[in-house]
C-alpha cells in the first residue's frame, strides 16, 4: 500500500461519521485503489442488539423464516442457544425476515453503497455469520476467495458487500483478512481446499493465489463496517477464543446489472453444487440454473429494478 493510500486509510477509518464530501471523494478513491473501505462506528449499538436478538429467536426456533438457510459447522457439536443441537455457524438468505433485512436498508449503509454502485440498489445476498470457537479441526477458517465466484451477474464494479461487526472482531476470533489491490485482477478458479479436518459446505477457495501478496487483518469494533469489491481476495482465520464471533452482511448489486451464463467458465463447479442443493431441498429438476437461484432472492432497496 502506498504512503498516500495509508494516510488516506487513516483519515477515513478513524472518522466516526465522515461528512458527505469525504464519503463521495476520499472513500471512493481509497476503495478504487485497495478494493475495500473500513468505516468506524457506522451501525448503532441499538440496531446491532436488535439483530442479535432476532438471531437468537431463529436459533431457538421461535420463528420460521421462509427461504432461510441455516448452516451448521461440520465439527461443532455444541449449540450456543439450544441444547443438543450442532452450532449454527451462518444464516443465509434472510430477505424474508423483516427485522434482519432492515440491516440492508439502513441509510448509513446505503449512503456508501450508492457511492460505489449507483442509485439503483438491489440487496442480493444476505448473511449473519456466527463463527464458532474452533474445535481443533480448523473448520472455523474460511479459505481465501473472491465473492464473484458465487455470482452469475455482472459487471463486477457494480457489486459491493457491506460487512458489519456485531461485536469486537480480532485476529484471535478470526477477523477478515484481505489482499489489498487484488480486486484489480480477474476472477480466478475456485474449489474446496485440501485441508486436514475438512471444510464447511460451499466454502470454496482461490486456487493458486500469491501467498506473498501483502495482506491486511481487519480488526473491528462493534458497529464498524467494511465495504469490499467482489473480486477482492479475502478470507478469515480460526476462532481461537471460547466465544462465537458474529457479523451481519449484505451483497448489493446495481439494478441495471445483468445475468450471465456460467457454462464454460470457472463458475461451472459452483453452479453444479447449487443445483444439487436446490434439487434436494425444493425437489426441482435439472433445468434450474444458477441465475434462477439468485433472481428469486434479490430485493430492491433503493431506486429502480431495471434488469435484475
From TrEMBL:
<dbReference type="GO" id="GO:0005777">
    <property type="term" value="C:peroxisome"/>
</dbReference>
<comment type="pathway">
    <text>Lipid metabolism; fatty acid metabolism.</text>
</comment>
<dbReference type="InterPro" id="IPR047128">
    <property type="entry name" value="PhyH"/>
</dbReference>
<comment type="similarity">
    <text>Belongs to the PhyH family.</text>
</comment>
<dbReference type="Pfam" id="PF05721">
    <property type="entry name" value="PhyH"/>
</dbReference>
<dbReference type="GO" id="GO:0001561">
    <property type="term" value="P:fatty acid alpha-oxidation"/>
</dbReference>
<keyword id="KW-0479">Metal-binding</keyword>
<keyword id="KW-0223">Dioxygenase</keyword>
<dbReference type="GO" id="GO:0031418">
    <property type="term" value="F:L-ascorbic acid binding"/>
</dbReference>
<dbReference type="GO" id="GO:0046872">
    <property type="term" value="F:metal ion binding"/>
</dbReference>
<protein>
    <recommendedName>
        <fullName>Phytanoyl-CoA dioxygenase, peroxisomal</fullName>
        <ecNumber>1.14.11.18</ecNumber>
    </recommendedName>
</protein>
<keyword id="KW-0408">Iron</keyword>
<dbReference type="GO" id="GO:0048244">
    <property type="term" value="F:phytanoyl-CoA dioxygenase activity"/>
</dbReference>
<dbReference type="InterPro" id="IPR008775">
    <property type="entry name" value="Phytyl_CoA_dOase-like"/>
</dbReference>
<keyword id="KW-0847">Vitamin C</keyword>
<keyword id="KW-0560">Oxidoreductase</keyword>
